[in-house]
Amino acid sequence: MKFKTIFSIGLVAALAIACATNPFTGKRTMALVPNSQIFPMAFQQYDQFLQENKVVTGTADARMITNVGQKIAAASERWLNANGYTGYLNNYKWEYNLVEDPAVNAWCMPGGKIVFYTGILPITQGEAGVAAVMGHEVAHALANHGQQRMSAAQYQAIGAVAGNLALGNDPKKQQIFNQAYGLGSTVGVMLPFSRNHESEADRIGLTLMAIAGYDPIAAAELWQRMKANAGGNAPPEFLSTHPSSTTRINNITSWASEARAEARKFGVTSFEK
Ligand SMILES: [Zn+2]
């Protein structure tokens, strides 16, 4: 057999076993690097980030981030359990932190490690706005969007090294992880997700915030404020990775009622704005 054929068969075999299912869409997604390898790296990076940044504790804002975070995490668990994904969050180690930083930014790393920057609070305003951002970011994590990006990078690397799967090669893996999550020298500056992943995270996020008791229409209002803030002084990290287009806002508005309907299945009938 020619080398190329062997390589192809090997690659197909590797891809066949290296898939995950997105519980929200039912779609099979590429997972060349399993979460069992990604989570420990994410947890380590998260701890390092907290050490190197000023974590806000004991304030009303810090308590709000934790409070909303716990509600979104609980909503995720309720949805997953009700849809046949019991145990999906077993290796999650949820954590919610607010850091003192003027950047308009927030993110959730794999395994439920969340950071909000104080710079985003004037735009999120109340709890429902925080829930909208949190729901969206948690949705990226639950749908393994980072893992798919990391797998795509790994896939390219496999091509580059002609068949060496390199999964056991730690420095290489770390490098791919850093690239996929925009970590390393630029911790917390996430690379933009694809438009598909953004839409998916918007839609899942609406359901999560609705089950958590927040009116999903607050997400559309949040993105309006984001859009209005685009010309402001604060570094627009979040906006650069999350363009607040009219299409996005229109989609969110049209999905709000299905998110409320989903929440009603869980007995949530009133929605806080
Ligand atoms: Zn996003």
From TrEMBL:
The answer to keyword Secreted applying to this record is no
GO terms for MF: metal ion binding; metalloendopeptidase activity
**Annotated Peptidase M48 domain residues:** 91-255
Entries under InterPro entries matching the protein:
Mito/Outer_Membr_Metalloprot (IPR051156), Peptidase_M48 (IPR001915)
Residues in the signal sequence: 1-20
Q: Which UniProt keywords apply?
A: Hydrolase, Metal-binding, Metalloprotease, Protease, Signal, Zinc
Indicate whether Zinc appears among the record's keywords: yes
State the CDD domains in the record. Answer: M48C_Oma1_like (cd07331)
Q: Name one GO biological process term.
A: proteolysis involved in protein catabolic process
Q: Which family does it belong to?
A: Belongs to the peptidase M48 family.
Q: Which named protein is this?
A: Peptidase M48-like protein
